[in-house]
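Exercise 3.2. Students should predict the tertiary structure of the chain below and write it as structure tokens, then compare their answer with the key that follows.

Predict this chain's 3D structure.
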Amino acid sequence: MPLTLRPIEPGDAAFLRRVYGATRAGEIALAGWDAATADAFVGMQFDAQHSFYRERYPAGDFDLVLDGGAPVGRLYVAREADRLHVIDIALLPPFRNRGSGSALLDALLREAAARGVAVTIHVELNNPALSLYQRLGFREIGSAGFHRLMEWRADAPPVAPTLTNKEDTA
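Answer key:
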């Protein structure tokens, strides 16, 4: 069954916190916190992030990603005059690396191409999805701290693959 989207609702808060926590699980594990401390941290960070997104992008589309009607992630997009800005895209771990993120992004790229606008996204430097964005043709156009601003344009020439380590040269 294809993925679908629906606007988030107040009753989705616990699920959205779970998705956020899953995106930070590696960092939280390194901290060595007990479950209560980790849960409090995730709640505080999620609330701050969600409030920031809502204030910064008041007209944004804040959607749950559904697979067969069951929530599996979130997709937040600001549809602006000159671009589609992916505010956030996150999937629960069992739905990663299965083509779900690619399918969501592909739909946005097709929408942007039809409108003649770019797609942008801020990506943390250690985000495993960075390689996905690069494969789809996103290019870095700026950076700030631990984030890269990446952009996709339908009219951009393809990017040649880059060598990342010695094994790639063999």
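Discussion points: The radius of gyration is 17 Å. The longest strand covers residues 70-79.
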